[in-house]
Amino acid sequence: MRDFPPETRAYTDRGADAPDTRSPRAFLWWMVRQNGGLFWVGLLVALIWMVPQTVGPWMVGRAIDTGIVAGDSASTTRWVLALAAVTVFGAASGIAFHTVIVREWLIALYGTTKLVTRKALQLGHVLTRRTPTGEVLSVSGSDGDQFGALMEITTRAISQLAAYLVVAAIVLSTSVRMGVLVLVSAPLLVLLGTPLLRPMQRWQGVERSRNSELTSMATDIVGGLRILRGIGGEETFGGNYAGQSQRVRQSGVAAGRWLAAVESVGVLLSGGFVVALMWLGTREVAQGRLSVGQLVSFLGYGLFLIQPMRTFVEFAQKWTRSVVSARKAIAVFSQRPPWVHPDEPASLDTSAVIVDAESGASIRPGVLTMVVSAVPDDSAALADRLGRYLPSEEGALVSDEIPEELKGRAARRERSARARAREEQARRDEERARQPWGVTVGGVDLSRVELDDVRRHILVSDTSPQVFAGTLRSAVDPLGRLTREQAERALHTAAADDVFDALPGGWQGELEERGRGLSGGQRQRLVLMRALAADADILVLVEPTSAVDAHTEARIAARLGEHRAGRTTVVMTASPLLLHHADEVILLESGVATAHGRHADLLADSAAYRSVVVRGADPDPAALTHLSEESS
């Protein structure tokens, strides 16, 4: 079979089958369909596995009646051999069933993880603004496991339902009274257990929401641990985490109470069913309506039917959990990207002038341009526009969390209202995306260019980049395209020699997650090295040297222009050491470009520029030149 790992093309390949997010049940049925023929193979194997368990008690009864009671040793031997063959067949089919069912489980589990990954690639930076990190991790991990468990229990429940009906038919053909008892037992179990499922589902939903919030808190604490230690905030955040952990425990205990109640009903009814079946069976034997062999068969069937009845209870439990998980998954998968494909895509000419309509900034191609602003958010916003990224205040969707005090119809109405609000927000996002973006390259607005082309040609390295665990080589060149000389050139330009030396093994040295083993300056230079190694046609750097010392910054400044010679480079910075090497500098005031020219000219002619760049330091360009030459 070539079905594992599961192939997932949704969200990033046009025309690929995307999850059905109309409702939790529609989504779960889509998950079943994604297993394809494997689900039906698993069901077939499960039905075969039920055959020995169904005919086994009947064979034992026949062996007693025709062999032992009749004193026919040959008949007894034949039935014993037949029973042995059925037992071996049942063991083999059980192994096959377990193999297939585990495969179904893994496909559902890892298929969900790949779906989350694809959705993250589709939404990009918008995902973390719309959905808490813990929620995304929970869908990828624990919810995917719930979907896998549902695949397993569904296959098993259907096969055991078929076995239950076959056994009922066998018993009914022998004894009408006992057959009716068998047929009534399972519906009675479902009828008595159903009222307990709704509060169990509600508390499981509360537990799921609190647990995802706890995961988000853990992620934030780990990510900001160094800062928390610096400001003495470990106890505060640790206390918040402990409090939320207790809330998760309380909701888990509440959900566990209802789960225990459901299981208690199952155990009570299944035990009572066996007692009633045996009481009725002995009366039938005493009255001569049943033989001893048939009574033994009914005892075997009574014990066997406990398994399907318990399976039906387990199915109800896992179905309830899966519906809760599906509702959370839909909240992630139903989000549409705030970008639309242009009706007539235009090509991107990276050798043309870039114009930002909002600020009025004009960036000449093939030169090193630096943007200065007294408000860093203004220059960062310009970088977002150049890369066609949504501004930070855009993209927030309505939360799917329902207040715990809302129950029943009120909760369903609130959930429907929020779903409609999300649809309306998505519609407004799409309408906004169809409007001109406001940044043109060679007169072509970026909204007319496929987003993939924009990402391919324009690279924005912002102030909050991610560093993943792995080798230094994979961090700098994740696609494995660089030669050693190219990687070393990027290393030299970023003045990251100490990063290389700090890792045992050089390029094969292992980085911790988020680059925790590196200082802030080393991590910043690692990110700069990665951005330079990508060799984008248009490179936008946001404060690339804010965490490094002056001598290191001067070395980077002296090498950056040569490294990017002939290609468009835009740097958002107010550092005199960098600005000294710029081909052109643009000054932003209140987000609007008010002056442009060489660094030395702006220092001499613009008081506004001096107030941003100098800030009480020596404005003498000769001093800056001396420091730059000394560092290089």
UniProtKB/TrEMBL annotation:
One of its GO terms (cellular component) is plasma membrane. Keywords: Membrane, Transmembrane, Transmembrane helix. Residues 407-433 are annotated as: Disordered. The keyword Transmembrane applies. Residues 40-321 form the ABC transmembrane type-1 domain. InterPro entries: ABC1_TM_dom, ABC1_TM_sf, ABC_transporter-like_ATP-bd, P-loop_NTPase, Type_1_exporter. This is Multidrug ABC transporter permease. It comes from Terrabacter aerolatus. The lineage of its organism: Bacteria, Bacillati, Actinomycetota, Actinomycetes, Micrococcales.
